[in-house]
Amino acid sequence: MPSFLYSQLFVRPKYPTTSFAGKTVIVTGSNTGLGKEAARHFARLGASKVILAVRNTKAGEAAKQDIESTTHCASDVVEIWALDLSSFESVKAFAERATKNLSRIDVLLENAGIAVAKYDVAEGHERTITVNVISTFLLALLLLPKLEATAQKFNTQPHLTIVSSEVHGHCKFPEWKADNTFATLSSKETANMDERYPVSKLLEVLVCRALAPKLDGTGVILNYLNPGLCHSELSREGPLMLEVLKFFLARTAEVGSRILVAAAVAGPESHGKYISNGIVLEEDLSPFVKSEDGKAASEKIWKELTAILEEIQPGVTANALK
Ligand SMILES: NC(=O)c1ccc[n+]([C@@H]2O[C@H](COP(=O)([O-])OP(=O)(O)OC[C@H]3O[C@@H](n4cnc5c(N)ncnc54)[C@H](OP(=O)(O)O)[C@@H]3O)[C@@H](O)[C@H]2O)c1
Predict the structure, then answer these.
(1) Which amino acid residue places its CA nearest to atom 8 of ligand 1?
(2) Cα 257 to the chain's mean position, in Å?
(3) Is 90 exceeded by the pLDDT of residue 22?
(4) Whole-angstrom Cα distance, residue 159 to residue 42?
(5) Dihedral sign (CA 11, 15, 18, 24)
(6) Per-residue pLDDT reduced to its tens digit, 178-236
(7) By the 8 A CB rule, do 322 and 217 touch?
């Protein structure tokens, strides 16, 4: 908690200045909030292509116009592509389009996420788990070959960056010990929606820590980050207390988005690591993640997730096998 207050009140992440000239960047959930502000930075910093991967293409069009009018980038830089993470078919179609039509992917910034209070199902799993975890890593694995090909062809280090949160430490997550964690999380009878969003952010951290070593030597940098508490539309269903907290402490979406951009340019030292306040800050990971139980949970979750992903797209997990 002191670290949270200190960061929110006294740390101002650096304004991004690294050039993205010649780069192709995909940002999921970029019609609003942190994703839109990160996309604006990429366009301002000269990216050749910034793909707004959004479920609402009309909102994506408005974001494109807003970004163009503020950055004065050329009209062919920002593109709007449909992506709905609550549909596996949509994720597959997006990945196929990107694989076929893009000559390179320098940054896959997986930012889209939801925080909902109500239990709902998408693709057979509780919706938060489907959107924040299963589809997020389905997209990552489907696009890994393109990221790796970009590394080789252009002698560069593409980034796979996952937007997590410090709230990954704000949950008890007893489900990790269940015979089947994902099945337990999906059950309406046992779902604890009060800690579902933090659990989804913890799952992201655990999966990243299992996946990163498998990408060693591919040239792809995988990192995951905490943007801090920011003003955005995320807490539209959140409690009043959160709004009060945000009023006093939250960063603007633009300031928070600087951490997304920092992760997307971070060097190899960030591979497999947690970025907070714009720098690698492993000490800010939760005690559970750093514990022996956390390591065991990471391996268990990875095993279960790969079985789920294989069912959705047979063969996809071979993309992450060393
Ligand atoms: N704001 C914070 O304080 C904070 C703190 C820590 C971490 N984060 C993380 O930051 C990321 C961005 O959140 P934000 O604060 O910018 O929230 P936001 O303003 O609500 O933006 C979330 C984005 O995700 C998109 N999205 C939601 N469901 C989707 C789906 N099924 N398919 C595709 N896109 C979908 C939303 O699209 P629609 O507009 O169509 O809903 C929106 O573009 C999230 O991963 C969140 O967990 C935020």
Answers:
(1) 165
(2) 12
(3) yes
(4) 14
(5) positive
(6) 999 999 999 999 999 999 999 999 999 999 999 999 999 999 999 999 999 999 999 87
(7) yes
- Give the mutation target among 111, 162, 257 for probing the ligand 1 site: most ligand atoms within 8 A of CB: 111
Task: Decide: 91 in ligand 1 pocket, CB within 6 A.
Answer: no
- Tell me how far apart the alpha carbons of residues 24 and 10 are, in angstroms, rounded to a whole number: 33
Beta-carbon neighbour count of residue 53 at 10 Å? 29
Give me ligand 1 centre to Cα 234, in Å: 6
Beta strand ranges found along the chain (DSSP E):
24-28, 49-54, 78-82, 107-110, 121-122, 125-126, 159-163, 221-226, 274-276, 279-280
C-alpha of residue 239 to centroid of ligand 1, in Å:
17
Question: Alpha carbon 90 to chain centroid distance?
Answer: 17
> Is the per-residue pLDDT at 237 higher than 80?
no
Instruction: Tell whether ligand 1 has an atom less than 6 A from the beta carbon of residue 158.
Output: no
Residue identified by tokens 């508490």 is 229
Tokens of 127: 């919706």
Distance CA(173)–CA(178), nearest Å, equals: 10
- Catalytic residue set: 164, 197, 201
Distance 33 CA to ligand 1 centre (A): 7
Q: What are the C-alpha distances in Å from 64 to residues 60, 70, 139, 260?
A: 6, 10, 22, 19
Q: Domain 2-311 adopts which CATH fold?
A: Rossmann fold (3.40.50)
pLDDT of residue 322: 58
Is 163's C-beta closer than 6 angstroms to any atom of ligand 1?
yes
- Angle 292-312/196-211 helices, nearest 10 degrees? 90
